[in-house]
Amino acid sequence: MASRKDILLGILRGGGQLTTGQQIKLCLSMSYPAILAQLSSVMMQYIDTAMVGHLGPAAGASIGLVSTCLWLFGGFGMAATSGFTSYPSGSTPAGVDVLFPEWHDVRPGGDGLPV
Questions:
Q1: CA 83 from chain center: how many Å?
Q2: pLDDT of residue 27
Q3: Residue 92 · residue 106 · CB < 8 Å
Q4: CA 20 to 30 Å from 113, out of 4, 32, 75, 87?
């Protein structure tokens, strides 16, 4: 049995239009793993703080500083990875050798033959 996400993606792949509610459901179902990953990261930071908190204010402050920096740089890394991954996947047609794009005519309406 197909999941709701597969059904909605099938509608899109078939050229159909999704309603606003369907778009929201699809977006939430596809972003669920990323949301859980961010929540688990925050929970681990709380656990780290709780474990080190009894050692004193200096140790607690160091955990706060390190966890905030890790979260900040990790967020930038995730954003860059997501942005740079989606750009080439949406701009190259299927079957084109990405390593040597100059060998193919990849313009819209191009015939796909070597240039």
A1: 8
A2: 85
A3: yes
A4: 87
Q: Read off the tokens for 62.
A: 């160091």
45: phi then psi, degrees, rounded to nearest 5: -65, -40
Q: Which amino acid is at 86?
A: S
Mean pLDDT of the chain: 75
Burial 5-39 (b: 16+ CB within 10 A, else e): eeebbeeeeeeeeeeeebeeebeeeeeeeeeeeee
The two structure tokens encoding residue 113: 């033959």
As a dihedral over the C-alpha atoms of residue 83, residue 87, residue 90, residue 95, rounded to 10 degrees, the angle is -120
Distance CA 74, CA 34 (A): 13
71 touches 41 (CB < 8 A): yes
Tokens of 29: 């179902």
Give the three-state DSSP class for 19.
coil
Residue 62 banded pLDDT, cuts 50, 70, 90: confident
Q: Average the pLDDT over 81-101 and give the result.
A: 59
Neighbour tally for 92: CB within 10 Å: 14
